[in-house]
Write the C-alpha cells for this entry.
Amino acid sequence: FTGTPVEESLFQIIHCYHQYAAREGDKETLSLEELRALLMDNLPHFMESLGWKQLYYISELFRAADKNKDNQICFEEFLYILGKLAKDYHLQYHRQLCAHCCTQHGLY
C-alpha cells in the first residue's frame, strides 16, 4: 500500500492493532496484556518518559476505553485510546519544544 503519509500511518495503525489482537484469545480484540505489549513495543520513548507511572497509565487507558466492560478492547474502543495517546503525545511534544526553546534562550 502506498499513499499519503497520513494514509500510510492509518494503515500501519490498523495493521498494528490486528497483529497484537491476534496474539491470544479473541483475534479481533486486545486484552490488557496485548495492549501493554503494543504500547511498549511501538511507543517505547513515550512509555519510557512516563517512568514508574507507565503501568498505571496503560491500566487507566484500558479501563477508560473498555466501554462495555468485557475486559477486551475492540477496534472502536481502540480509537478512544489512539485519541488519548495523540493528545498526551502532543502535550509531551509541546513540553519538550518549550524546554528546548527555554534552554536555548537562557530561560531555564
Observations:
- Residues 65 and 77 are 5 Å apart (CA to CA).
- The helical segments are 5-21, 32-42, 44-49, 54-65, 75-104.
- The chain has a mean pLDDT of 89.
